[in-house]
Amino acid sequence: MEYFITNLDRIAAATLRHLEICAISLAFAIVIGIVLGIIAAKLRSLAFVILGSVSLIYTIPTLAMFGLMIPILGLGTVPAITAIVLYSLLPVVQNTYSGIVNVTEETLDAARGIGMSPAQMLFRVELPLATVVLSAGIRTAVVNAVGMSTLASLIGAGGLGDLVFRGISTVSLSVVMAGSIPIVTIAVLADISLRALEKRLERRLGQSRTQLAT
Amino acid sequence: MTLREYIAFFDDYILHLLIQHIFLFLIAFAAASFAGILIGILIFRFATMRLLMPVINILQATPEIVLLALCIPFLGIGYAGALVPLFVKGILPVMQNTLGGLRNVNTSMTEAARGMGMSDRQILFRVELINALPVIIAGMRVASVMLISAITLTAYIGVESLGTLILQGIARMDASPLLVGSGLSALLAIFVNQFMIFLERAAMRAVGTRK
N or C, which end of chain B is more exposed by having fewer CB within 10 Å? Predict the structure, then answer.
C-alpha cells in the first residue's frame, strides 16, 4: 500500500504508456483486420491463405513472438506494437469474415432486388449485419492486447509490465500488485463495456449467439 | 556463435528444455481439461453455480504473466507456482465451450432420449456430452495453444522451459537462443493445434455435425 502512495506518479505514467501501446496496436489491428476479413469474404480463393496465415501467427507463443521481433526490428516501441498487431489480427479477421459469410442468401437477394450495387451491399447490408460478431472479435483482441502489452516491457517498450517484471525479480508483492491491479482493471473494464455494447447491438439487430472460446 | 554452432553445442540442453516444456504442458493440460469439463457440466446443471461467472470473467481477463506473478507469494517459485496458475487459466476455455456445447444440444434430441426412458445422468453422458464433444475439443484446442504459450513465461519464475532460451536471448541480445526457443515453442504450438483440429474433425464426423 505504501508503495502505491509513494509511487503514484510512476504507476500513472506506466498506465498511460500501457494504454498508449494498446491503443496504437489495436487501431492498426482493427483497420487491417477488417480489410483482410472483407477481402477473405469476397475473394474466396484468398480466404484460405488469409485465414490460415493469421491463425498460424496467433498460434505462435506470445513471448516467442516478442523474442522473434528483436533480430528483425530490434528493441523498443515499434517491434512491441508490431507483435501486438500481428497477434490481434486473428479475432478481427476471423469474425469479420464469418460475420459477412453468414449473412443469408435471402437478405442478399433482397438487397440485390432493390438495385444495390455490390459496394452498397457490403457497406449497408453485410457489414452492419456483421457488427455483432465483429464486436465480439474486437473485444477478444482488446483483452488480449492489454495482456500482451505487459510483455512489451521485456523488449524495452515500457508500460505496466515494467512494474510486474521488477516485482518478480525483486520478489516484491507490492511492486507486482502496483503493475497487476491496473492491468486487470483495464482488461476487466474493457471486457465489461464491450460486452455491454455487444448486448445492445444484438438487441438492435435481433441476433443472439452462444459465447464460445475462439 | 552462429545458430548452427549454438545448436550443436547445446543440443542436450535444448532437448532437455523441450521435454520439460512438453511435460509441463501435459500436466497442466490434462488437469485443466478435466476440471474445465467438470465445472462446465456443473454450471450447466446447477443454476446457482452461475454465481461463479464474475470470478471466471475476471480470471479470463487476467494476463497469464500477471497471474503467475501474483501467485509467487502464495505458491513460491517452482513447479507449484508455475503449474497452478496455468491450470487455472487453462480451465476457462474448456469450461466455456463445455457449457456452450451442452446448451446448444438440440432439445428435440434430449426429449427423445427422455421419451426412451433415459435418466438425467444417462442423457448427460450418452446424449448431451457426446453431441457437445466437437465444441468441447475446440475449447481444449484453445487451452492447449494458450498453455504452450504461457509455459514459456514460467522461465521468469525459475521453472525451466523453452522460455528459458528466449529469456537468455533477450538478456544477452543473442539471436541464437532466441531463435531456437521461439522457433521450437512456435512449432510445438502449431503441431498441437493441428493435432487438436484433427481430433475436432474426427469428433464432428463421429457425431455427424457440420460447421
Answer: C
